[in-house]
Amino acid sequence: MGRHTFRPRGGGGSAVAGGDVSSETSCFADEVVVDFPSVAPAVDRIRSAFLADERDPDVSAAVRLSAREAREGATVPLEVPVRCTCRRCGGRGETWTERCRHCAGSGTELRCQQLRVSVPPGVLHGTRLHVTLTPRHHPPTRIELHVLVA
Description:
Blueprint: E1 2-6, E2 14-16, E3 19-21, E4 25-29, H1 40-50, E5 59-65, H2 67-72, E6 74-85, E7 94-95, E8 98-99, E9 108-119, E10 128-133, E11 141-149
Parallel strand pairs: 5-11
Antiparallel strand pairs: 1-4, 2-3, 6-9, 7-8, 10-11
């Protein structure tokens, strides 16, 4: 702790009903600098999530079906890369003063996600299906599925 003297701007003392009051005030103060990581990358991801329907799909994948599966419908396994919050920096994109090396400052990382997709009956070759995958506590991922019928 150090002793600091504060002087208000504007010059000398001020007059009060009983006399003159000095403008000089003394007090003790600690100098503390708190440096929080930037939240700008997280705010940008939140803002873009509101506009998710206006942007292109994040992932494109092909689903191969037999003629019978296309006629009757099917549930097919699919593995897609999904953007998730970086485990090392918690989505901030930095660790105090440095960019996160694991996610290269983006705040997200790619992880493969296993899912099962239900394809409706009567689907034709070349049909495109749009699916949005929203893992808990992670940004949504838009997936465009191309149906290929053998």
